[in-house]
Amino acid sequence: MAERRPKPGWRKVKFGDVVRLSKARCADPLAEGIERFVGLEHLELGELGIRSWGNVADGVTFTSVFKPGQVLFGKRRAYQRKVAVADFDGVFSGDIYVL
Question: Would the pTM of this model clear 0.85, i.e. be above it?
Answer without folding.
Answer: no
